[in-house]
Specification:
The chain is an alpha+beta fold. The chain is built from three helices and 13 strands. The chain is globular and about 45 Å long.
């Protein structure tokens, strides 16, 4: 995975595994990043700093945009060659238009400890747990009776996020939680 300090190459498209597990109704679990890549992303996010919320965000969170981290091109390529293909195969005839936005998120006792029930401005959302040395702050899908508590670090949850898959983050009890969120465009040219 690319960071502000260096660029990494993703596997060639022919070598990317398009398998997934459906862990709840229309929630897919896809192997995506290694634990070391996840650690690199959250360490780089802390080094870059500037956690904050987007202006006008109805559900504000402590975030850093992928473009600021130097991750945008790598994540866009991953969607074109991997995650987008998984989504198109599962939800045919859905058409993938690329990434709309991508950002790391941080939950900590001294800033944000929860996130309210909401849907995303995204056709399909990808959520990656970057660490697991915290308690609480589970990503919960009430309508699907599912949480990411047992999802391994580096695996990506893919879900149709605009209507049917409302989600929230319950209260952090200890530690710091880091995650990577990726939103896809809802139509051509829909980029944040």
């Amino acid at each position: 995975v690319a960071t502000a300090q260096k660029e990494s190459q993703l596997p060639a498209p022919s070598k990317i595994d398009l398998s997934y597990e459906e862990v709840a109704k229309d929630i897919l679990l896809v192997p995506f990043l290694s634990e070391s890549e996840c650690t690199e992303i959250w360490i780089n996010s802390e080094a870059v700093g500037g956690w904050g919320q987007m202006d006008g965000d109805k559900f504000p969170a402590q975030e850093i945009r992928a473009k600021k981290l130097g991750l945008w091109d790598t994540l866009e390529e991953a969607w074109q060659n991997h995650l987008g293909k998984v989504a198109e195969n599962k939800w045919t005839p859905m058409q993938h238009y690329g990434l709309r936005d991508a950002f790391t998120m941080r939950y900590a006792m001294d800033t944000q400890t929860t996130l309210g029930f909401h849907t995303d401005a995204s056709l399909v959302t990808g959520s990656v747990k970057l660490n697991d040395d915290y308690v609480g702050a589970e990503l919960i899908f009430p309508h699907q009776s599912f949480s990411n508590k047992d999802v391994p670090v580096g695996h990506c949850l893919l879900f149709p996020s605009q209507v049917t898959h409302g989600h929230k983050v319950d209260t952090l009890k200890s530690g710091i939680k880091y995650s990577l969120t990726m939103w896809t465009s809802r139509y051509p040219g829909d980029v944040n």
